[in-house]
């Protein structure tokens, strides 16, 4: 894992018709606070990529990960395991 700040991108279009992303946004912000990751993980607003499924991108140094079909619980797990512990969650996504 890089010592550079990581970023997590999620669709942040107010009219996003992918309703679960609203809950993902809340869960991401809660997890950043809960795990004290303000200096390590940057929340980045993303436009619609056309996927329109509950997903996030994580940029970790030069590596980009896509995690999809998420729930608030799954995104919190990704933040804990990937960002906090440095262990990408292979069963939920991977590099692309
Ligand atoms: S408009 Fe939000 S994911 Fe497409």
UniProtKB/TrEMBL annotation:
Gene3D superfamilies: Glutaredoxin. InterPro entries: Thioredoxin-like_sf (IPR036249). This is (2Fe-2S) ferredoxin. It comes from Desulfonispora thiosulfatigenes DSM 11270.
């Amino acid at each position: 894992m890089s010592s550079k700040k990581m970023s997590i991108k999620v669709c942040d279009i107010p009219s996003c018709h992918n309703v679960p992303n609203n809950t993902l946004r809340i869960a991401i912000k809660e997890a950043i606070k809960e795990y004290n990751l303000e200096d390590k993980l940057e929340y980045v607003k993303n436009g619609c990529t056309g996927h329109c499924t509950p997903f996030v991108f994580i940029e970790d140094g030069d590596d980009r990960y896509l995690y999809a079909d998420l729930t608030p619980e799954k995104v919190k797990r990704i933040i804990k395991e990937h960002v906090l512990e440095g262990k990408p969650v292979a069963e939920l996504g991977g590099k692309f």
